[in-house]
Amino acid sequence: MGGASHVKILMATSEAVPFAKTGGLADVCGALPIELARQGHEIAVMLPAYRQTRYCGLPIEPLGIEFIVPIGSKTVPGRLLRSRLPESNVPVYLVQQDDYYDRPELYRKDGEDYPDNCERFVFFCRAVLETVRLLEMDLDVIHAHDWQTGLVPAYLNIEYRSLPRYHRIVTLLTIHNIGYQGNFWHWDMLLTGLDWKYFNWRQMEFYGHLNLLKTGIVFADAITTVSPRYAEEIQTPEFGRGLEGVLQHRRDVLTGILNGIDHRVWNPATDKFLPTTYTAETVLQGKAICKAALQRELGLPERPETPLVASIGRLDDQKGFDLIAQVISEWVGQHEVQWVILGKGEPKYHERFAEMARRWPDRLAVRLEFSDPLAHRIEAGADIFLMPSRYEPCGLNQMYSLRYGTVPVVRETGGLADTIVDTTPATLADGTANGFSFREDSAAALADALWRALDAYHRPDVWSQLIATGMAQDWSWARSARQYEAVYQQTLARAQTRSS
Length: 500
Ligand code: ADP
Fold this sequence. Notes:
Layout: E1 8-12, H1 24-38, E2 42-48, H2 51-54, E3 61-71, E4 74-84, E5 91-96, H3 98-101, E6 108-109, E7 112-113, H4 117-134, E8 141-145, H5 151-160, E9 170-175, E10 183-185, H6 189-192, E11 205-206, E12 209-211, H7 212-219, E13 222-225, H8 228-233, H9 244-249, E14 254-256, H10 283-298, E15 308-315, H11 321-331, E16 338-345, H12 347-359, E17 364-367, H13 372-381, E18 384-387, H14 397-403, E19 407-411, H15 414-419, H16 425-429, E20 436-438, H17 443-457, H18 460-472, H19 477-499
Parallel strand pairs: 1-2, 1-8, 2-5, 8-9, 9-13, 13-14, 15-16, 15-18, 16-17, 18-19, 19-20
Antiparallel strand pairs: 3-4, 4-5, 6-7, 10-12, 11-12
Helix pairs in contact: 1-19, 4-5, 5-7, 10-13, 11-12, 11-17, 14-18
Bound molecules: adenosine-5'-diphosphate.
The site of adenosine-5'-diphosphate has 17 residues, from helix 1, strand 15, strand 16 and helix 13.
């Protein structure tokens, strides 16, 4: 490094917009590299070429580079394709292996994980390390994400470190959600090709299973997660999902960095999905138009005065949709509120919300699908956004909501706690209030916070203040990228001290 500020980074990930997306990870890996490049760093992104990648709408060209990697006792061929992140010069290397990746979905089918997920990502991680050599990359940092790339730090340290090209590369692992660990049966250890001596409780083993996230945590030079509060939480038994011990052990190199939001995509002043655009100056008129249009689109009565309460996300226990369903059922006959749910996920939630929408069609609109355009129109048209998550590493929708002048009601956990300041007389007075939050994991606590939000909704001066505060805040990637840069620099400096 020699004190230079310019860092050479390879980002290894299983998702990046617009190439492949199932959740927030894709948003991070599509946006952070562009911002790091803008700040003067040299960065490339690498991910598998899935079936959905072909339809991402960007040109993808073959590089004419083929390779083979060992998977257990066999060898498996792959090939490299190249594209770019949109409106940038950031190269994207796609690993083509159609037996593994040319499938309808990324990780699962009909609610079941693919049985060979371990093998699919052993292959990808080895391909990442091989690509460094094949493309003669000169790197400072390999930045891995989640369990899918947890083996990258292990392979680098165990198999590649002695080769000159890899000698001084440091690895960073970002944990986006500790609920997904890549836990596989112990015989999958054979697929990794690594010695059984690493299969012990301090390294790759987790209660008799092979755990790829733990592997990454143990072997990476530094670890980040996606909010400061979550970095603290995952070191406790309540949130650590069994990995709290290993994380406590590595707490000196564990940092929380909030994700940013993509201002080009999530900006009410330019959003092409909206019936009208608006800014902080025109928000009241703009939102009124968006709200009326949304009510029409969803088949709800067009009532400007009725508060419209929305939630968008994976229909999963994590997101607290059971609490939302409970509050809707209790309130629907009593209070003048309209509800909209956009989400896809567990069948039990699909059934429950579909049934509720049939019962109360003029109160509740439910869309059980993944729709980016509708997500934008909901963020613009709703008055209140609910996120009663049991845990929330960072969360993006509450930041989108702030930017769109939609007031968030959230559980005080993870990134929600780091971004939303509860409305109290004190926070209203000091101008920090931007939403509502509650602690307890219960429908009663959510109902109480929502009740306070509705009270504020009916006090226009308070409501305008909350909207103005939220819209003025900076959740940009520029902010996050500067913090990642600092972590890269510190990690490189530590490695240099270690080797000298
Ligand atoms: P997570 O990564 O845990 O799913 P985040 O809030 O960090 O949650 O990110 C979720 C992303 O996926 C957001 O961009 C959100 O708007 C989007 N999203 C989730 N479900 C849907 C859906 N059904 N339709 C459209 N967008 C969705």
